[in-house]
Design a protein that fits this description.
This protein is mainly alpha-helical and about 100 residues long. The protein is built from three helices and two strands; from the N terminus they run αβαβα.
Length: about 100
């Protein structure tokens, strides 16, 4: 039953080759990959739909990697900047009213 001892150790933690418990923790980093732009989805309506669906399947199947096109990154940045500008305007309006 030597296998049971090694199974038990694995359940309790991670060990190096010498059998010493590894106390370091790992992280699960997120990566963002920015590639291409929306013009890559060109062709007939059916071709564009097939390309977009394939891209979406690839994007969803990639673990811990956020995949964006340059167009999507630009839209997100424009949203953030626009929102920040609106918040700053609202703050200035509130300050001047007081």
């Amino acid at each position: 039953m030597a296998g049971q001892g090694s199974d038990q150790r694995r359940r309790e933690g991670n060990y190096d080759r010498e059998g010493t418990l590894i106390r370091q923790r790992t992280t699960d980093p997120k990566c963002i990959l920015v590639i291409g732009d929306d013009s890559a989805f060109s062709g007939s309506d059916a071709e564009r739909e097939a390309k977009f669906r394939t891209f979406e399947l690839f994007r969803r199947d990639s673990r811990n990697i956020g995949i964006l096109t340059y167009s999507e990154l630009y839209e997100r940045a424009a949203f953030v900047v626009g929102r920040s500008a609106r918040q700053a305007d609202a703050y200035r309006d509130n300050v001047t009213e007081e």
